[in-house]
## 1
Amino acid sequence: MTSTIATIVSNNYSMPFDAVKCWIQLGGIDFFSYSGSTLHYNRNIVYNEARKRNQDLIFIDSDIIFTPQQVRTLENHLGEGKDIVTGVYTLFDTNDFPALFRRVADEYVPMKPEEGVNVVGACGMGFCAISKKVIQEMGDEPFNPFTEGKVQH
């Protein structure tokens, strides 16, 4: 499977050495990197690159520690027909909950995953794969911190 694997690096931020070691272990991959001041803008840049290439997209933020097998697992799930899959990681401000949420009424609440594949209402994009089918359907610049579809936050 050919995927655009992209890392997002904030301005004036460097990768932790453990993250650098993860990228070195991947070896022989085609990846795209973008560094800018806002996360949603950076995501839109690499999203548009994957869209232009007509490829699946795997986001791996610069602070994510991963193994090559975890990346292959994301790719395999896309190959099995999943549209969007995320690896489990904790949010930067808490080690208690992973970046997974379930929808309750009009809110998202943190959830703990079960073993295996879980259906979630929302997830962090720091270690996430999106199929090229979904990328082609999402339109221009879908990453926006202020709206969710037609809902303004």
Note: The first helix runs from residue 17 to 26.
## 2
Amino acid sequence: MSDTIGRLGVFAELNVPAAELPGSALGLSDASVRDALAGLGRQVATLQSVLAGVAAARSGRDRGHGGLVQGTGHRNAMEFIRDLTGSTRGEAIRTVKVGEALLEGHGDGAGGPAPDAGSDPGTDAGEDVPPPVPPWHEPLGVALLQGTLTSAQ
């Protein structure tokens, strides 16, 4: 993610106040426009999916009315994303599902760290604990995070 933002920094035409952006962007070369659109579009979609997954994790039924999206008056993360982004129901569902899949194995979504594989209270300290099995879709998540896949694929 920081690589894409860093690459955008080389375009002085984009480092202007928002009101000046349309006129300034006209000064970009065709190649610069293509590069910026390709890199930025995928990164924004990936970030949106990850954040939708976090919103869903922080809005589970166990949180009741105290969940992240419930605090905004929405029933679930899909409605929240749909309302915020103006996307269709199907796009919002996909965004939330992809985000939830990307977060698997990375903590509980409540801001806490992922549980340590060897810290199961039901095991003895000297007992060998097998490493956790990665989810079947982990290669897809890696490809999405690297920019080789889009969430729509």
Note: The chain has a mean pLDDT of 77.
## 3
Amino acid sequence: MNSIWEIEKRFRNQYSKRMIRKPIYLVIIGIILITYASINLAEQNTIYYYSTSEILNQNVNNTDERIRLGGLVKKGSLNKSSDGMTIFIVSDGATDIVVHFEGIIPDLFQENIGVVLEGNLFGEIFMSDEILVKHDNEYKSNDGTTYKVKKGI
């Protein structure tokens, strides 16, 4: 016959095993939720853009969907009109697209520089109202000295 002490000891062992399992399950569920949320946020904040060749091959013409276009501003193509419209050509080296931009031009914007534009494609013209300028890690001071920014400093 089992004594009361043995029954109590068995009950404590089973109870303590259940108490240890609960935190482990909670930690696993927490890790899964954090991983899912991280992946979901990363997908939402990732900026995808089409090159000029890709955008003409895709069926994005005359749609309400806003798209992003990336490329280099072609040298000699930059024209600013009096009504605030800036017209220039963006190229990926193979295909050119005329861009009509209405808005404030960033200070770093110039010819032969990488840009990412957001807007809509109408025929062969990309209408944009937002522009991001890509730049390298080389900076020039007022006296003309060039500084190269190094990673890890």
Note: The beta strands are 67-73, 79-80, 85-91, 96-102, 114-122, 125-133, 138-140, 146-148.
